[in-house]
Amino acid sequence: MPSKKTLILNKEQILQKSKRIAYQILEDNFEEPSIVLVGIADRGYIFAQRLQKILKDIAPDKEIELIKVTIQKNKRSLEATTDIPVESAANKAIVIIDDVLNSGRTLAYGLGAFINVPLKKMRTAVLVDRSHHQFPIFSDFYGLKLSTILKEHVEVRLEEFDKQEDSVWLS
């Protein structure tokens, strides 16, 4: 028996939410000369790349850096690697970015990669916040806050990764 899928966000809505998140990040970091976006591989990093492009368009004089964090999600302890040294974020404002916030484990692991780096401030941004937090992690910026039951699944499709049109589905 196939499960029923419901479209939650289409391509235009994802773009609209992304722009709103970018403006919120800019407003929160208005006085900062640079912002470091930390995208959690894979879809979180793609979302971070999109936010970086929007931020560069609306604030061309602000430095917007991008770091990719790869996390071993199936491990019970933190194992994270970055594409550039985490020390490059020292004394800067960072935003940890993922596609969906469910339990908070992935974002907590992403934050953990920067635990020994002195930061000005740390925020989180997600496209969809499901509100099933098991960790004390909350989204500072989100596109959609969605109340779901635990057995439901949120699937984010991003063209660059999934080779399908951008969409968010609930099944």
Automatic annotation (TrEMBL):
This is Phosphoribosyltransferase domain-containing protein. GO terms for molecular function: glycosyltransferase activity. Residues 8-152 form the Phosphoribosyltransferase domain. Keywords: Glycosyltransferase, Transferase. Pfam families: Pribosyltran. It comes from the Bacteria. InterPro entries: PRTase-like, PRTase_dom, PyrR_bifunctional. The keyword Glycosyltransferase applies.
